[in-house]
Design goal:
The protein has 78 residues and is mostly helical. The protein has two helices and no strands. It has one domain (2-69). Helix content is 81%, strand content 0%. Helix 1 packs antiparallel against helix 2.
């Protein structure tokens, strides 16, 4: 169970990093007057896909952590 929790934490960290990078990048691109509308549109699509992927991974990781925190079921065959 400890490995599962460690893996979940790693996935959460990667998801958080992805969110940070893309939100910061889009903020900078949106405020830059020298970039074209096409450049902004393409990067907005990439950002939306990346952020959606990060959110899905975060949900999976949180479920993994919740599952790892639950006690193991007892074997009732004995």
């Amino acid at each position: 169970m400890k490995r599962q929790r460690t893996r979940a934490n790693l996935i959460l960290a990667a998801s958080g990093w992805t969110l940070y990078v893309w939100i910061t990048r889009m903020w900078n691109i949106a405020r830059d007057p020298s970039t074209s509308a096409g450049f902004k549109a393409v990067h907005a699509v990439i950002a939306v896909i990346s952020v959606a992927f990060a959110v899905v991974l975060a949900v999976v990781a949180l479920r993994m952590r919740r599952e790892a925190a639950q006690p193991a079921p007892e074997d009732s065959r004995i």
